[in-house]
Amino acid sequence: MPYVEKHDRRKLEAYISSLAEDIGKQLSSKAGLTIAQQQEELGVLYKSKLLEVADALIDKESGRDAMPRTAAQRLGHQIFDVAKRKGGSIRVDWLGNLNYTTTRLIQQVPRIMIANHGWKEEFGYPLYALTAGAIEQCALEIRTRYVPGNIEWVLDGLVGVFFDISDEYKRRVNIAYEAVQIKEKGDAFDAPFRTEVIEVKTADGRSGYQEIMRDFSGSAQKRD
Question: What is the pTM of this model?
């Protein structure tokens, strides 16, 4: 994830929260949905809202600067405008801003659902898969947009950012979740060559996990 400076984060945070609240309200307004069904719907909403953000950025780069009317469009404009006010390479900065805001958004929405709408857990595998899938679908769909030839890079940048967000979400969040699940419930892999999760301690005594690569091919270790 790009290291967006603190003063830029402050300029973006209110717009991220506004979109997160908007998504939470839309989810809670669908009467009769179970939490599992809300999570299914959340994937659909993520895709819709993130495509709105991306389209707003395309419009800004294309010189079409219509008044934003939704929380997603306002976030898209702010992502671009924060980069523009910094000067220098606008495109590099707004790509980084998009990565940051999306990463923050997909963490804020579950917390809103816990605080206000009865969810019990902030993260689990179904929510991860639906969220990552929605982000990757954005990457696939945005590449079909038409842009003038002189800003073809915009589509390449958007695709790269969305796939990068999904990759980082797996690396920074889901891999840690999987390590905990492996230690608590056992491993699903018994291939002869595989990683093994081991417990480690930091210098100040905190516990955690890391993976090591192992050759089990000559092991008599019983397979479950």
Answer: 0.92
